[in-house]
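BUG: 3D viewer hangs when loading the predicted structure for this chain

Environment: internal workstation, default settings.
Expected: structure renders.
Actual: progress bar stalls at 90%.

Input used:
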Amino acid sequence: MNIKKIFTLGICASCFAASVFAYNPPVQGENIFGFANPYQLTYGNSVAGGALFNVTPATTVYNPALGSMEKRFGLDFGYTGIFGGEKYDSGFEAGFLAPTKYCNITTEVFGLFANSATMQIGNTMHIKTSVSKEITDKFSLGIGLGAGVNWGYGTDWSVAADIGALYNFGTLGFMENFRIGAAVLNLGKTFNALDTRGVDGSSARTDWFGYPGFATFKIGAAAEFVNQKNFVLGLSLDVTSPCFMNLIVDSGVQMRIANMVTVTSSWQYNMKEHFAGCHSWFPTVGVIVKLGGVNTSFTGNKDWSTSDISIGGAYKNINNYYHAGSIGASVKLGQADKEGPQIEVGEFEVEEDD
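Structure tokens produced before the viewer hung:
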């Protein structure tokens, strides 16, 4: 290797090291949409639709392509209390998913108000909209656009786009409903002009890169490993890298019992938070109960006379004494089609010419 190549390699390595050193988001700054509701808290940030494929409007924040497979109008809303710090913090979300003839549309509003020193994100409000479409019966694409504001430690704004893809292999070996997803998130301006406290403890705005991280790359897979009549077990695994300056690994496990109760859990490894000494090694845990066939005739739409409503709660340890508890619900209006369209072929006569 000649001197010129060595010099070039050294410059590149120095630039990369400087950028990694400058990367200093607040604790959980890459997870500001994860405190929305119980499912989000234990979802494992899955880009492939979760261990047991279940899409709500909020989950499309990880991959805008996820909404493409939903055939029913959906609603979700949730509230999360964050306690144990100097102040009581909180988060919430509300949104909808609307299937249309040409594409599926999702809109979601997120709020997170975290002002304790342990997780000093500030007061944030976001709105995200995405459109998604099934290109084939196995492959989907999606694109989203979001905007947000942050106040409390200065004021700042964000506008960024997301793109994502999802491929469903179906049955692959002993795995069922095997899916792979990929997304690139936060393509635009993120929060980078605030005096919030970063992972390393400093609060100088010039010390860090911004959050959520610009050009966050995500790839993940999920599948069902046990699929019996009254018991289904699924696992998910995701790898995330905000502009290649951090490594985040998420894993999730979900168990559905009697098609009514779903027990969810997830665990995350955040390399930056680990080396800064503010990483939690405890998994999240949640329970979601599905109430099928609920009378929703008040909607005035005969196709929505009965619907599926899911309610749940979840817990997450953020860091030592700092905790989050969440409650929420999701609604899927109408009932899923279990049979294909019935086509009847009538008899007809052929007239013969004389």
